[in-house]
């Protein structure tokens, strides 16, 4: 595999961009190689600047559920682009997108569009604090909610990939209001709630953790959180930036039947363009300005291009309902991986939900952040590099989720499975 041009571009990028990339995981640091620079993408494939072709299981970190450059999404974007890129004024499309999300997701009665998942997390916490009059937040070790100061504490894949637990520049006063619980450990949450009774505004988590690898909630965990929050007057916030419209049209909350007070979205709802959103019960969302006193604003919020791509993507998902087939593809691929690992005598866990899945080089299932850190990341590095040489593009981190799209063909899946035995040997 020739990557001369990517190597040259990375060297050039480091002269003007910190670390040569605009998001740390793209640097390929944890897999001990230079990043690939992508020239184009189509369907299930990525094409780099050196002319190499890859079957893509990153999907721009989740948004590309229909594959890259989907014909209808591109057509709608071209049509919208001719009308203008941003107006700084309301559009009908914003209403339509909010109506679709409210109609699809059980917990959402009102929705506010923003520009990223990070921005949505930040705003949701502000609203929760304004609504409850409390300051403290409970988050979970390994759950990532964007590059937001109060939430950059044991914040999942970003910090895990770089091998750092926190980020310099986050004031100690911010961290003091962020309490850490263990994912899938209800007792740890109850203990924090008891020790800080009447002070906790919200519990925030990914209902399906996707930023310490892919880790589903254990039976009863989400219901236990719901019951605790009800007893203590705490708002329950589901971060469905990754799982929303990905694991199910109604998100993970629809699968588990647990209704949070607020939800956060991104990725799929923008069809691959920058977007974020937060929503929830009407009485909570009416706290947001100009309806209420909690201020939040954004110059490009509700950008017509992101809205157009999102409307088209969600429309296709609703009409075609690809979720059963996506789940079958993912389950088949996971099964092939497990069979190959067993034959090779390699300890491997595949964990999946819908079209999200993860691979852990571990003898036991991974249920939380602590266990994720104990997995064999050196073996993952060898495995990743071998898969890449064979034309399979996986996330360049042992702590990121992988994604199957509607564009992945049977041939793509079989080719991926065929590459796996060699990658297990690190060849």
Automatic annotation (TrEMBL):
Keywords tagged on the record: Isomerase, Porphyrin biosynthesis, Pyridoxal phosphate
In alphabetical order, the GO MF annotations are: glutamate-1-semialdehyde 2,1-aminomutase activity; pyridoxal phosphate binding; transaminase activity
Signal peptide: which range, if any?
Answer: none
Which InterPro entries does the protein's record reference?
4pyrrol_synth_GluAld_NH2Trfase (IPR004639), Aminotrans_3 (IPR005814), Aminotrans_3_PPA_site (IPR049704), PyrdxlP-dep_Trfase (IPR015424), PyrdxlP-dep_Trfase_major (IPR015421), PyrdxlP-dep_Trfase_small (IPR015422)
What's an example GO BP annotation here? protoporphyrinogen IX biosynthetic process
Record pathway: Porphyrin-containing compound metabolism; protoporphyrin-IX biosynthesis; 5-aminolevulinate from L-glutamyl-tRNA(Glu): step 2/2
Q: Tell me which Pfam families the record gives.
A: Aminotran_3
* Name of the protein this chain belongs to: glutamate-1-semialdehyde 2,1-aminomutase
Q: Which organism is it from?
A: marine metagenome
């Amino acid at each position: 595999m020739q990557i001369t041009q990517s190597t040259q571009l990375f060297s050039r990028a480091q002269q003007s961009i910190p670390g040569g990339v605009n998001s740390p995981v793209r640097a390929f640091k944890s897999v001990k190689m230079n990043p690939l620079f992508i020239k184009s993408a189509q369907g299930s494939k990525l094409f780099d600047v050196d002319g190499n072709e890859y079957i893509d299981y990153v999907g721009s970190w989740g948004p590309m559920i229909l594959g890259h450059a989907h014909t209808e999404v591109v057509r709608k974007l071209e049509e919208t682009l001719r009308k203008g890129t941003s107006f700084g004024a309301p559009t009908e499309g914003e209403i339509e997108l909010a109506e679709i999300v409210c109609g699809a997701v059980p917990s959402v009665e009102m929705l506010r569009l923003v520009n990223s998942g990070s921005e949505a997390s930040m705003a949701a916490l502000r609203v929760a604090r304004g609504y409850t009059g409390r300051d403290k937040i409970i988050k979970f070790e390994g759950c990532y909610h964007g590059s937001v100061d109060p939430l950059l504490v044991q914040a999942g894949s970003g910090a895990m990939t770089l091998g750092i637990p926190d980020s310099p520049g986050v004031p100690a006063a911010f961290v003091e209001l962020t309490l850490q619980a263990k994912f899938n450990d209800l007792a740890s949450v109850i203990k924090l709630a008891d020790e800080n009774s009447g002070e906790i505004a919200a519990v925030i988590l990914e209902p399906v953790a996707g930023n310490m690898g892919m880790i589903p909630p254990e039976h009863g965990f989400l219901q236990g959180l719901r019951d605790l929050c009800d007893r203590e007057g705490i708002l329950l916030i589901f971060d469905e930036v990754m799982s929303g419209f990905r694991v199910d049209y109604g998100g993970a909350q629809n699968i588990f039947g647990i209704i949070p007070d607020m939800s956060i979205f991104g990725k799929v709802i923008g069809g691959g363009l920058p977007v974020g959103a937060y929503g929830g019960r009407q009485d909570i969302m009416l706290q947001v300005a100009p309806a209420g006193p909690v201020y939040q604003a954004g110059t490009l919020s509700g950008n017509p291009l992101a809205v157009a791509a999102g409307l088209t993507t969600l429309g296709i998902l609703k009409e075609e309902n690809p979720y059963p087939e996506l789940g079958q593809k993912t389950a088949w691929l996971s099964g092939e991986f497990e069979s190959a690992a067993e034959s090779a005598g390699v300890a491997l866990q595949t964990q999946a939900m819908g079209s999200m899945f993860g691979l852990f080089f571990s003898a036991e299932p991974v249920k939380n952040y602590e266990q994720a850190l104990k997995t064999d990341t050196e073996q993952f590095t060898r495995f990743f590099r071998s898969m890449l040489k064979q034309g399979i593009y996986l996330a360049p981190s042992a702590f990121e989720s992988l994604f199957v799209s509607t564009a992945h063909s049977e041939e793509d899946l079989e080719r991926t499975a065929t590459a796996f035995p060699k990658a297990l040997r690190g060849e």
